[in-house]
């Protein structure tokens, strides 16, 4: 038997194992394969190197990216996240390549390289898919904005234009932004159709024949082309023009017929903005009709109202004609007729006022008629009515009947002036007239006590030459008013004389001092 190499009392030591397989020879092909596999974002290069920690880090980074990016929205992925993820991929590729340079792989290097090239389609395809998803999300966001603007217009239509103006402006701003800033979007392609709805909604009052309500909305629509590109409006650019011109005329004509005042503003806007329109051509005929209607009213039941209307028309038409362009000639002619008919109608107005017992106004109307009328058969009677109206202000019974133009009579009435003031004598009854007596030189105002003394008799000084005038009047009741002239001459005096045949009558005008300095 061979002898054992060691005896029972001898010991031996096993040498330690090496820490790992010896480094492989450097291989650039392995490094490239691992780098490409790590660029896929899945960390597969580390899987072939059996480096599980870095593999997990790559997967976590990709998971974070997907969590932030999905679902895709119009804003896309934040720039910071993209930059951070790109840095992670580059670091993973560089680190994996360095490690794989001298580390064997769990698969053949050429096969790993081919797999890495194929898996690069994952991030590239994902980026392309995400870009398409983000673009679709942006399209949907723009369509949502369009829908909200549509809802805003629909809600605004339920209120008045004045209350909804700001909503209409907000909706218009959205339409403009879509058309100008997002010209290729589906939402922008729908803007022209939405603008047609926008115009028809705002201009709905015109379609209902509510012309006065339509004016302001249509004026607003004419400002839209300042904001919206013309190619997005098309024929809508001039859509409000004819409608606004018609509305201005119809609203103004209705107000003119109703006796209002707003018609001048509507007609002025119409003639200034659309001078050549069919609506503008109707303004002068409408003014002529208004003047003719008012003139016909002079012979109706309210002549004074008609006269006031004519005078107001004359003033407003003259003012309108100053800025009416080609229509100024016709409007000036209408204003002239209104003024002339108003002056002529003052007679009928005064008669009506006299009959109603409004003697002060009747007197004013008749005096106005006499001053404004150079001739005509009514002028003489207007003067008589003015006198009778003044007498009736003191003696209302004098206004029971309208005076005539009759003159003369069989009874002699002499009026003397025993007053230091000029005296105008007015009388009415079967005959109406007036005359003035000069002040009596040397005459004084009588004291009140003297006038109530028994035997008081003015105009009785045989040595004084009293200013006097004799008139002839018919039988009947004549009303006299003595109106003193001059400052501080006092109030008028009156007398009612019932004249009978066979008598001679004398009127004496004198002044009485009352308590204080009044006369």
Q: What report would you give on this structure?
A:
The chain is an alpha/beta fold. The chain has helices at residues 28-39, 44-49, 52-69, 79-100, 109-119, 121-156, 161-181, 186-202, 204-207, 211-221, 230-233, 239-257, 263-273, 283-297, 303-321, 328-355, 359-372, 378-394, 448-451, and strands at residues 411-418, 423-428, 433-437, 446-447, 468-473, 476-484, 493-499, 505-510, 512-513. Among the domains are: 28-119; 290-396, no CATH class; 406-513, Immunoglobulin-like. Helix content is 56%, strand content 10%. The strands form three sheets. It has a four-stranded antiparallel beta sheet, with helices on one face. Strands 5-1-8 form a three-stranded mixed beta sheet, with no helix packed on it. The chain has a two-stranded parallel sheet with strand order 4-9. A hairpin with an 8-residue loop joins strand 6 (476-484) and strand 7 (493-499). Helix 14 runs parallel beside helix 16 (328-355) and helix 15 packs antiparallel against helix 16 (328-355). The longest helix is centred in the first third of the chain and has 36 residues, at 121-156. The radius of gyration is 55 Å and the shape is rod-shaped. The relative contact order is 0.05.
Q: What is the radius of gyration computed over CA atoms, rounded to a whole number of angstroms? A: 55 Å
- Low-confidence parts, pLDDT < 50 over ≥5 residues? none
User: Any idea what the shape is?
Assistant: rod-shaped
C-alpha termini separation: 184 Å
């Amino acid at each position: 038997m061979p002898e054992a190499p060691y005896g029972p009392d001898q010991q031996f030591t096993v040498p330690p194992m090496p820490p790992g397989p010896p480094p492989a020879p450097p291989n650039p092909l392995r490094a490239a394969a691992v780098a490409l596999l790590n660029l896929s974002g899945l960390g597969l290069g580390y899987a072939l190197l059996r480096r599980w920690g870095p593999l997990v880090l790559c997967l976590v980074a990709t998971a974070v990216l997907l969590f932030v990016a999905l679902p895709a929205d119009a804003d896309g992925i934040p720039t910071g996240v993209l930059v951070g993820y790109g840095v992670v991929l580059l670091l993973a590729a560089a680190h994996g390549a360095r490690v794989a340079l001298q580390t064997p792989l769990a698969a053949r290097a050429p096969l790993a390289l081919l797999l890495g090239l194929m898996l690069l389609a994952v991030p590239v395809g994902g980026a392309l898919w995400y870009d398409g998803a983000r673009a679709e999300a942006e399209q949907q966001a723009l369509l949502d904005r369009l829908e909200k603007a549509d809802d805003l217009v629909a809600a605004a239509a339920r209120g008045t234009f004045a209350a909804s103006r700001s909503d209409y402006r907000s909706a218009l701003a959205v339409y403009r932004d879509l058309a100008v800033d997002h010209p290729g979007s589906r939402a922008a392609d729908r803007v022209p159709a939405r603008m047609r709805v926008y115009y028809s909604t705002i201009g709905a009052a015109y379609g209902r024949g509510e012309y006065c309500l339509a004016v302001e909305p249509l004026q607003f629509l004419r400002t839209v082309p300042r904001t919206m590109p013309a190619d997005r409006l098309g024929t809508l650019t001039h859509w409000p023009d004819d409608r606004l011109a018609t509305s201005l005329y119809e609203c103004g004509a209705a107000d003119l017929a109703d006796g209002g005042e707003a018609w001048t503003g509507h007609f002025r806007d119409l003639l200034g903005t659309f001078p050549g329109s069919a609506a503008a051509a109707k303004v002068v005929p409408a003014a002529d009709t208004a003047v003719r209607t008012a003139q016909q009213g002079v012979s109706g039941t309210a002549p004074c109202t008609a006269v006031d209307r004519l005078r107001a028309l004359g003033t407003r038409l003259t003012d309108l004609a100053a800025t009416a362009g080609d229509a100024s000639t016709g409007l000036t002619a209408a204003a002239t007729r209104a003024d002339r008919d108003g002056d002529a109608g003052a007679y009928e107005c005064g008669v009506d006022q006299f009959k109603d017992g409004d003697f002060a106004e009747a007197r004013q109307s008749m005096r106005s008629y006499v001053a404004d009328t150079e001739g005509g058969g009514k002028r003489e009677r207007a003067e008589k009515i003015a006198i009778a109206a003044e007498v009736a202000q003191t003696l209302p019974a004098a206004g029971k009947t309208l005076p005539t133009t009759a003159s003369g009579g069989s009874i002699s009435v002499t009026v003397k002036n025993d007053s230091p003031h000029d005296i105008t004598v007015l009388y009415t009854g079967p005959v109406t007239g007036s005359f003035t007596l000069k002040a009596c030189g040397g005459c004084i105002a009588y004291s009140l006590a003297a006038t109530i003394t028994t035997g008081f008799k003015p105009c009785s000084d045989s040595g004084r030459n009293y200013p006097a005038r004799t008139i002839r009047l018919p039988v009947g009741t004549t009303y006299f008013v003595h109106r003193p002239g001059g400052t501080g001459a006092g109030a008028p005096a009156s007398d009612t004389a019932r004249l009978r045949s066979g008598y001679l009558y004398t009127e004496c005008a004198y002044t009485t001092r009352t308590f204080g300095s009044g006369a």
